[in-house]
Amino acid sequence: MGYARKVGWVTAGLVIGAGACYCIYRLARGRKQNKEKMAEGGPGDVDDVGDCPGARYNDWSDDDDNSESKGIVWYPPWARIGTEAGTRARARARARATRARRAVQKRASPNSDDTILSPQELQKVLCLVEMSEKPYILEAALIALGNNAAYAFNRDIIRDLGGLPIVAKILNTRDPIVKEKALIVLNNLSVNAENQRRLKIYMNQVCDDTITSRLNSSVQLAGLRLLTNMTVTNEYQHMLANSISDFFRLFSAGNEETKFQVLKLLLNLAENPAMTRELLRAQVPSSLGSLFNKKENKEVILKLLVVFENINDNFKWEENEPTQSQFSQGSLFFFLKEFQVCADKILGIESHHDFLVKVKVGKFMAKLAEHMFPNSQD
């Protein structure tokens, strides 16, 4: 009887261990599949929701695309590092683990994409996110959710399973890797009108975390991407009105990648006439004018000019002339006014080596003088 009980315990342990290894393998394997399907700049699945055009992509990077080498391998006790026998034993263990993973994969889903989880599997992953406190488990589970949230049909399923508040709760973590993955999941889920309506309650928290995060960090970039998605429509842009000055600060101080991401957000805001006054009220750093020089990336200058042109086009001089006193010194309003009046701040770009930049600046200055500050010509 004792022997049978021992055999039963061993068998149960093997079954549970195999199931756990397979689940972890499926979560980890999604990194490679995600990169192949959702490479940034390529086509992706988009919800047909009218106000949410354009695809959004996962943007985490992998140092090594070979997911099989990242799997969990159990080494025997005698496979010590640094010994010849240990090296051979570890190589044999890795080979056995690889063969086992391939066999399990073939039996489990011979003709299907292993990264697309069923609703039942998504529910289990959400339970992992909700119950686990281990960073490496949370990271693997969030990567799996991010992969599946890249598909339009899964965004509704994850929402119906209560996944939005579960993932949003992870934003309170102090682990930057886990927080970044949670922001990526929410970013993919936000390409959906109903999801946006439910995610709007977290916009202030995401905005605060983005502004206070380490400059140019992955968490900051992920937060900016989520805020950009949430401002594709005009419905929730007003929630960022008090943070526009901080976005200009990030734009001036950040690296090239941060600058481009902030510009995408500012472009969304500048296209909305209702946000023109809030943009002009924003305090901008004095270093903003120094961006117009030969050393700055041409695309950064051109996109910034587009932001200014949209603001200029939406500004109604006749309606706003009596209220100019509401704009304080150091605001974007006075920056644009000096941009046109103080020629010495623009002379540096007049000798810019790029002809397109010179043409764009010349046209913008003419429009600025004609439309926004007509009286300044006197």
Automatic annotation (TrEMBL):
Regulates mitochondrial aggregation and transport in axons in living neurons. May link mitochondria to the TRAK2-kinesin motor complex via its interaction with Miro and TRAK2. Mitochondrial distribution and dynamics is regulated through ARMCX3 protein degradation, which is promoted by PCK and negatively regulated by WNT1. Enhances the SOX10-mediated transactivation of the neuronal acetylcholine receptor subunit alpha-3 and beta-4 subunit gene promoters. This is Armadillo repeat-containing X-linked protein 3. It comes from Myotis lucifugus (Little brown bat). Interacts (via ARM domain) with MIRO1, MIRO2 and TRAK2. The interaction with Miro is calcium-dependent. Interacts with SOX10. The gene is ARMCX3. Belongs to the eutherian X-chromosome-specific Armcx family. The chain crosses the membrane at residues 6-28. InterPro entries: ARM-like, ARM-rpt_dom, ARM-type_fold, Armadillo, Armcx_regulator. It is a single-pass membrane protein. ARM repeats lie at residues 162-199. It comes from the Eukaryota. Keywords: Cytoplasm, Membrane, Mitochondrion, Mitochondrion outer membrane, Nucleus, Phosphoprotein, Repeat, Signal-anchor, Transmembrane, Transmembrane helix. The keyword Transmembrane helix applies. GO terms for biological process: axonal transport of mitochondrion; intracellular protein localization; mitochondrion organization; positive regulation of transcription by RNA polymerase II. One of its GO terms (cellular component) is mitochondrial outer membrane.
